[in-house]
Write a structure and sequence with these properties.
The structure is a single chain. This protein is of the alpha+beta class. The protein contains ten helices and 21 strands. The protein has a single domain, classed as Double-stranded beta-helix, CATH 3.60.130.10. α1 crosses α3, α6 crosses α9 and α7 crosses α9.
Length: about 350
């Protein structure tokens, strides 16, 4: 089976190698990605918090200079390298979130993000830190996209995040996504993470024909989150390479949404079969990561998928996570087909996020 495996190179597909190829069952025995915060690091965060309060009226204005972390900054630089060149994930634990009010909490999380990368917007309204919680009927009202008839109605991916329903494996439109757990769910809400390169290798071994399908274009909907029209579509493979570097940008929701746009051909049977296998393998190879208050998770979207189990909350304050999106100075170059989504595709460029609506 001769095929193009990366830019300018043709040949038989080979399994991917490196530290980013791991199985969930092995992850507990791999060191380095779990990082309990030391007392000295919490002290550094408290000092940086006070500095930011002196110099920044708004947490969105925080920079590395206004959130100085001393020796902890060097540790975060190593985390930045590991996110791109290592496993692709890190989980901090032990941030005493109950000690801080909401503004202080946001300052600390935003400041940590500034030391890792550059913040990018998560919505056309310029949202720089999202809140992940069950918003009930309000999320359903905002996120329902309707078409020509009731059969075209569809709940946006963004709205699904704000419900207690499970989320399928997907990536976000950014180099790195960060989550801070303020309150876990009463039950469920487990974060699932999986190596995308391990998925690639497993499908290559079991069904190389389906791997070829996943390396070809699928129609994908921009689905109402963009300026310039809600019915825009573009073509993008699930698995891509540039200069030998692997990346995957994927959400089945957007592929299914494209089929609801008039004139767009539905996915073929072989495409559906390939996506079904991807989902099955992701479940087999994933790692279940339980969140406690004060946990912070950072994931490289190019080499990892994440998902979430459904959850239930008790009466009163429920599950709450803060989310940031980061463009990384050491990020890999991306394929040309990513340009419509990411704006700039070159290594180290400020890219990703959702463009803000400046028409108003």
């Amino acid at each position: 089976m001769e095929t193009e495996t990366s830019e300018g190179q043709t040949g038989r597909r080979r399994p991917l190698e490196g530290p980013a190829v791991w199985r969930g069952a092995d992850l507990p025995n791999i060191s380095g990605w779990r990082r309990p915060l030391a007392a000295s690091e919490i002290e550094a965060l408290d000092a940086a918090l006070r500095c930011s309060q002196t110099h920044c009226a708004d947490w969105r204005d925080i920079t590395v200079d206004t959130f100085p972390l001393g020796d902890f900054a060097a540790s975060l630089a190593r985390v930045r390298d590991n996110l791109e060149n290592g496993l692709g994930l890190v989980k901090f634990s032990g941030l005493p979130v109950d000690r801080y009010d909401e503004d202080e909490r946001r300052r600390i999380f935003f400041g940590i993000g500034a030391h890792l990368g550059n913040h990018v917007s998560q919505s056309a309204q310029g949202e720089m830190m999202g809140d992940i919680r069950d918003e009930g009927a309000e999320a359903l009202r905002r996120g329902l996209i309707t078409g020509d008839d009731d059969t075209k109605a569809f709940l946006s991916s963004r709205a699904r995040v704000q419900t207690p329903a499970l989320l399928r494996f997907h990536t976000d439109r950014t180099d790195v996504v960060g989550l801070l757990c303020v309150r876990p769910a009463a039950e469920g809400g487990i974060s699932k993470v999986v190596s995308t390169q391990a998925i690639y290798n497993e499908i290559l071994e079991r069904r190389p024909d389906l791997l070829e399908v996943l390396c070809q274009d699928f129609n994908r909907s921009l689905f109402g989150q963009e300026t310039g029209g809600r019915e825009m579509i573009h073509a993008l493979p699930v698995f891509c390479f540039r200069d030998g570097a692997f990346t995957s940008y994927y959400s089945r929701t957007y592929l299914e949404a494209a089929e609801k746009i008039p004139g767009v051909e539905p996915m073929t049977d072989i495409q559906v079969e390939a996506l079904d296998m991807l989902g099955e393998v992701a479940e087999e190879l994933c790692y279940d990561m339980h969140f406690a208050a004060g946990d912070m998770q950072f994931l490289n979207n190019h080499i990892m998928y994440h998902a979430r189990s459904s959850f239930t909350d008790e009466a009163g304050e429920g599950r709450l996570l803060h989310r940031i999106w980061l463009s990384m100075s050491n990020g890999r170059a991306l394929p040309e087909s990513y340009r419509i989504l990411w704006g700039n595709i070159e290594s180290g460029a400020l890219r990703g996020g959702i463009a803000q609506d400046t028409a108003a």
